[in-house]
């Protein structure tokens, strides 16, 4: 190995060692924080007991008819001695608990100082790996071909992961819009039922204008469904681009249409309710498809994370061995 190679290797070894030390101190910090929390709980409980015992001693030391009578009978001194003994024990428990807290607080400070002293070891380690990799490829070191292959695989997986996260964003937008649309559709349906009941009253007209609230609910529902449709268009294209099977319910042009609901009267109320039920069915269907896409996307994101972690480990082992 050339002098440059030895230099890169020394830098990588130092960074690798620092990463290990950072991991060890981080684990130590977690243990210390947990133990310190328990020690502080013990100190708080011991302090409560001491406060209670001190209050009892003060009661016995104070003069009252009951205690004067107890003193005359010779019992007060015994009671006071017993209480003071319990108070002393409580003081000792508090002191011991305080000492334990102090010890673990010092451990906490030491662990934090150690981590701060190490600095950003992840960035250092990543830079050392990249420098060693660049050198190895440039000089055609043993394993350079494998490094190139690992790099190509990593880039491909990272690109897919980025695209899948965009898919996940489209899924979240569609699901949010569809769920909100369901609320407005259900509300408009309830209002339509109320209108139908109002017409059943004696002497009611055969024609009444729809409640303005229902029209507002439908306007909001339609706006949300069109917003969901835009997300579904994006989602369908992205899934095609990734080579995944497209869900039929994600075809936005089959889901989103023009919803021109009529003014209600006793003759077209049934038409309105039928169209509303059909729309509800389509929204529920789209939500079901979105949920399937969510599950499959999340699963693939987890798989990609594991594959990338494996590639990173293989790359690091190869560079450390060169």
From TrEMBL:
This is Lambda repressor-like predicted transcriptional regulator. It comes from Promicromonospora iranensis. The lineage of its organism: Bacteria, Bacillati, Actinomycetota, Actinomycetes, Micrococcales.
